[in-house]
Design goal:
Layout lengths: L1 H6 L7 E2 H8 L6 H13 L3 E6 L2 E6 L1 H18 L7 E7 L6 H13 L3 E4 L2 E5 L3 H11 L5 E7 L5 H7 L2 H15 L9 H15 L17 H17 L1 H12 L4 H11 L1
Antiparallel strand pairs: 1-3, 2-3, 4-6, 4-7, 5-6
Length: 268
């Protein structure tokens, strides 16, 4: 999913399966585990499989493109968080066990949007998040099982913050990120090295929206480490893009049967 988010995005051209497997080997994945992973993502409705003769390729579905768009917005918000006016969004739900998969998907989306759990089925996030949550509730078909309130908290927010998020663990994760990727600012990389570095950079940073509500440093000390990490991401992600994309395309856009036929026809 990181590969498709970083290198395919709105591009409608499918990526060759053999190339994807080859690329994933750079991250320690075996051929078998890579193909199993691709099949599982297809089963989740995030990739669609295209077959042409013996060639198999994959393209993102509308659902995956939506996830990528939401993820890109969240990552951009963490690298440059908007001001917080002390507004909170509180979401609670009552979803029965027979819809537990839907309940799990809703909880995962809420966490990705910066929500933290106050109780098992009650979540809170800074700022008005209703525009992000409401369409997803409609998509899941649980709008009538969920409540949303947007408003101000009339007491100091520290107790709410401490209950919903682990500031110390998040600060440690940001420090590890900064230590891992800061040296790349001083290195010259080949296309293959740039691809590995940029993919890992994206994969690591994409985890932070699940953990970080984007609160300011005066109430959330981990924000200081976030600022350093966000600066690294803003600098390195575009700086490595051209080389990394070139390596991705060279590996996953190889000629398939239709391409060979077109080449032969042009030659004739």
């Amino acid at each position: 999913m990181t590969l498709f988010g970083a290198y395919v995005g709105a591009d409608a051209r499918p990526a060759w399966s053999g190339g994807l497997v080859e690329l994933m080997s750079a991250f320690g994945c075996t051929t078998g585990s890579s193909r199993i992973a691709l099949n599982r993502v297809v089963e989740r409705g995030l990739l669609e499989r295209h077959r042409e003769g013996r060639f198999i390729s994959y393209a993102p579905t509308e659902r995956l493109r939506d996830l990528i768009a939401v993820g890109d917005r969240r990552m951009a918000a963490l690298t440059d968080p908007p001001e917080w006016d002390s507004t909170w969004t509180v979401v609670w739900y009552s979803i029965p066990d027979e819809l537990r998969r839907v309940r799990h998907r809703l909880g995962r989306r809420l966490r990705f949007l910066g929500f933290g759990p106050l109780e098992d089925s009650t979540w809170v996030a800074p700022r008005d998040q209703s525009a992000e949550v409401l369409p997803y509730l409609e998509r899941l078909g649980v709008r009538d099982r969920v409540g949303i309130i947007v408003g101000d908290q009339q007491v100091e927010p520290q107790a709410t913050i401490a209950r919903a998020w682990d500031d110390e663990e998040l600060a440690l994760r940001y420090r590890l990120f900064n230590k891992r990727f800061a040296p790349l600012k001083r290195r010259g990389l080949s296309d293959a090295e740039a691809f590995v570095a940029r993919t890992l950079l994206s994969d690591w940073f994409r985890r932070f929206p699940y953990l970080d509500p984007g609160l300011p440093a005066d109430v959330f000390p981990a924000a200081k480490e976030r600022d350093v990490a966000g600066g690294l991401f803003r600098t390195l992600y575009p700086a490595l893009a051209k080389q990394a994309q070139r390596h991705f395309d060279a590996t996953t856009r190889r000629l398939g049967p239709a391409d060979f036929a077109a080449v032969r026809e042009a030659a004739d």
